[in-house]
Amino acid sequence: MASSSIRPCILCIMIVVACLLFQCSYGARKLNVLVEEQSPVLTYHKGALLTGPVSVNLIWYGKFAASQRAIISDFVTSLSTKGSDQKQPAPSVSTWWKTTEKYYAQSKTKFPALTLGEQILDDSYSLGKSLTDADIAKLASRGAPKNAVNVVLTAADVAVEGFCMSRCGTHGSSPRSKSGRFAYIWVGNSATQCPGQCAWPFHQPVYGPQTPPLVAPNGDVGIDGMVINLASMMAGTVTNPFGDGFYQGPNEAPLEAATACPGVYAKGAYPGYPGDLLVDSTTGASYNVNGASGRKYLVPALFDPSTSSCSTLV
Predict the structure, then answer these.
(1) Do the domain assignments include residue 110?
(2) Where is the signal peptide (predicted)?
(3) Helices (H), the chain
(4) I need a labelling partner for 85 at 20 to 30 A (CA). Which of 4, 11, 210, 240 fits?
(5) pLDDT per position as a tens digit, 50-71
(6) What is the pTM of this model?
(7) Which residues of 45-68 are buried (b: 16+ CB within 10 A; e: fewer)?
(8) Overall domain count for the chain
């Protein structure tokens, strides 16, 4: 769900200019740990959806350890529904992802096949450590210009406009052009800035019911939190890539496939409690899906258009 705070007029003018240069983001994962009333329906607004093979390109901005990059790249690989089920024990990331395929069935559009594309490293902070939405769009343009979802991932020491104040991640798209059009996502590492807001339930929440933090499945609170937000934004991107796909409410603040189910990760979820998650007997980590390379992840519930309810695998 997109959210914005009231800012001085000069900043409003800057935002308008940025929207002229780069199409503004459509959806955002808000700071939210509470279970809200479910959306009755996500309406299809007859816009274009992603088609054909789609490359998911990762743009790493700032310093990430190789082990951190592997956690997220393995998650993206896990989204593939072609032959990956045999490599992922149930419940799997690929089965979770298939819920988004139901939206394409409603729109009579062929579901796109996602593949992990190129990975671009910018550990020199070429645009500084304080980024605007326009900076994020500029970074996203370093990925493929068409048939792509370009994902900008910012390190823990990078401040991004609205990060921790109103959002944990966003998605949008590039303007139409002769070279093509791509969708993009931004997600930040909240480990040092706001883990209680953007990495819950792996960190004590800063507001709402105070429940003990859970053990992160990959042993990295910031990165495991990024996976949750990336999963949410991937679902929003595929079902509403250009702002006129599936959503409910105003298009500048839409409820989308994952943001329609805030705070829900498993059956039995209630405010401050993510649900009855699986627990790894060796590490004590909480998770709800298995991914590629033997990984375990926590992903948000998705709104199932066939049942008009938030769907969980556990």
Answers:
(1) yes
(2) 1-27
(3) 9-21, 66-78, 93-107, 133-140, 195-198, 221-239
(4) 240
(5) 999 999 999 999 999 999 999 9
(6) 0.89
(7) eeeebbeeebbbbbbbbbebeeeb
(8) 1
